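[Q] Does anyone have a clean C-alpha cell version of this?
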Amino acid sequence: MRELADILFPRICPVCGVVLNGAEREICLGCLSSLPLTYFWTREDNPAAELFWGRVYFKKAASLFFYNEGSPYRHLIHNFKYKGRREAGAMLGRMLGKRLRESGLFCDIDYVVAVPLHPLKQWMRGYNQAEVIAEAIAEELGTKVLKGALRRNSFTATQTTKNAQERWSNVSGVFRIARKRSLENKHVLLVDDVLTTGATLEACGHALLESEGCKVSVATLAFVE
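[A] Here you go.
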C-alpha cells in the first residue's frame, strides 16, 4: 500500500525537493544526515542557555538544529507548523528527546510542559505544535506531558515579524500558571518549536517559577542564528 500511495501521491522532501522512497518519511536520508545539529545538549553553557542569562533562571537549555531564513531546513518547521505535518514535528521531537536522554544532563526531568496556544489559534491550526514535540520528547525521557500547567490569557499576534522588544511586549503577562501545586518542587522541561529572542519562553518561565521549588529547563527544535 505504501508503494502504491507513493506512486499516486509522491511524498517530497521539504528540504531538497526530491521524491522520498519507501524507507524515508518526512525528510530524505541525505538531508537528515546533513541536519545542522547544535549539540547544545552536550554542554550547559551553550548559546541557548546564554540567551536567558540575566532574564530568567533556566537550569538548562537545548535546541536540536540551527535555523535561519536562508536555510532550506526552515521548510521542515513551516510544514509542521502550518501545513499539518504533525509527524515531522514528532520525528524531530524524538530525535531531540533521544539526545537529551543520552546526554545525562536532562535525566531528572519530572514533567514536560508545552508552550500553550490560545484555544482559538489551536482550533484554527488543528493542534498545538509545541505539544506534539513535547509528547515525543516525554516518551524518550520516560516521563509525561503535564497538560494544562500553563494557560494563555489572550490571543496574540504572531511573533514572526516582530523585533525583540515587540516580541516581549506581545507576550508580557500573557501566560499564567494553572497547576501550581502539581509543579511544586518539580523539574519541568518547557518545550517550544523555535527559539528566536526567547521572549515567549521567558514569559512562560516566569509563570512556572511562581510554583514553590519549581525548576525549569527549556528545549526547542530549532535555534535561530
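[Q] Thanks! Anything notable?
[A] Residues 117 and 123 are 9 Å apart (CA to CA).
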